[in-house]
Design goal:
Keywords: DNA-binding, Isomerase
Protein name: DNA 3'-5' helicase
EC number: 5.6.2.4
Number of helices: 3
Largest sheet: 2 strands, parallel
Organism: Paramuricea clavata
Shape: globular
Number of domains: 1
Order of helices and strands: EHEHH
Family: Belongs to the helicase family. RecQ subfamily.
Strand order of the largest sheet: 1-2
Amino acid sequence: MGINFPDIRYVVHYGPPQNVEDFLQEVGRGGRDGKSAMAILFFRGKHLRKCDTSINNYANGDNVECLRTHILSEFCQIKHDS
Protein backbone atom coordinates (compact mmCIF):
# COMPACT_ATOMS: atom_id res chain seq x y z
CA MET A 1 0.00 0.00 0.00
CA GLY A 2 1.30 3.48 -0.76
CA ILE A 3 4.66 4.48 -2.14
CA ASN A 4 7.94 2.72 -1.51
CA PHE A 5 10.83 5.13 -2.02
CA PRO A 6 13.89 3.95 -0.08
CA ASP A 7 15.45 7.35 0.65
CA ILE A 8 12.66 9.17 2.53
CA ARG A 9 14.17 10.95 5.56
CA TYR A 10 11.23 13.09 6.70
CA VAL A 11 7.51 12.44 6.98
CA VAL A 12 5.66 15.67 7.77
CA HIS A 13 2.05 15.73 8.97
CA TYR A 14 -0.13 18.81 9.08
CA GLY A 15 -2.69 17.57 11.54
CA PRO A 16 -2.57 14.19 13.27
CA PRO A 17 -3.96 10.97 11.82
CA GLN A 18 -7.21 9.76 13.39
CA ASN A 19 -5.66 6.68 15.00
CA VAL A 20 -2.39 4.92 15.81
CA GLU A 21 -2.76 2.44 12.94
CA ASP A 22 -2.87 5.26 10.39
CA PHE A 23 0.02 7.04 12.11
CA LEU A 24 2.18 3.90 11.99
CA GLN A 25 1.35 3.31 8.33
CA GLU A 26 2.18 6.90 7.41
CA VAL A 27 5.42 7.33 9.37
CA GLY A 28 6.51 3.93 8.08
CA ARG A 29 7.09 5.54 4.68
CA GLY A 30 10.37 6.95 6.02
CA GLY A 31 13.58 4.98 6.51
CA ARG A 32 12.70 2.11 4.20
CA ASP A 33 16.40 1.68 3.41
CA GLY A 34 17.26 1.06 7.07
CA LYS A 35 18.64 4.57 7.65
CA SER A 36 17.20 7.01 10.17
CA ALA A 37 14.09 9.02 9.35
CA MET A 38 12.13 11.64 11.25
CA ALA A 39 8.38 12.11 11.57
CA ILE A 40 7.22 15.66 12.27
CA LEU A 41 3.68 16.47 13.40
CA PHE A 42 2.25 19.99 13.19
CA PHE A 43 -1.22 20.47 14.65
CA ARG A 44 -3.60 22.83 16.35
CA GLY A 45 -6.01 21.87 19.10
CA LYS A 46 -8.94 21.71 16.69
CA HIS A 47 -7.19 18.93 14.75
CA LEU A 48 -7.49 16.58 17.73
CA ARG A 49 -11.31 16.58 17.82
CA LYS A 50 -11.59 13.62 15.45
CA CYS A 51 -8.64 11.63 16.80
CA ASP A 52 -8.80 8.63 19.09
CA THR A 53 -7.61 8.85 22.71
CA SER A 54 -4.17 7.41 22.04
CA ILE A 55 -3.31 10.02 19.38
CA ASN A 56 -4.76 12.75 21.61
CA ASN A 57 -2.59 11.65 24.53
CA TYR A 58 0.52 11.50 22.38
CA ALA A 59 -0.07 14.87 20.73
CA ASN A 60 -0.79 16.55 24.07
CA GLY A 61 2.37 15.17 25.64
CA ASP A 62 0.44 13.07 28.16
CA ASN A 63 2.65 10.09 27.32
CA VAL A 64 6.35 10.48 28.14
CA GLU A 65 7.40 7.10 26.72
CA CYS A 66 9.51 6.61 23.65
CA LEU A 67 7.30 6.96 20.56
CA ARG A 68 8.22 3.47 19.37
CA THR A 69 7.21 1.97 22.72
CA HIS A 70 3.98 3.99 22.74
CA ILE A 71 2.97 2.86 19.24
CA LEU A 72 3.92 -0.79 19.74
CA SER A 73 2.03 -0.95 23.02
CA GLU A 74 -1.16 -0.31 21.03
CA PHE A 75 -0.62 -3.58 19.16
CA CYS A 76 1.01 -5.94 21.63
CA GLN A 77 2.07 -6.31 25.23
CA ILE A 78 5.46 -4.70 25.90
CA LYS A 79 7.65 -5.18 28.93
CA HIS A 80 8.64 -1.74 30.22
CA ASP A 81 12.02 -1.12 31.87
CA SER A 82 11.72 -0.30 35.54
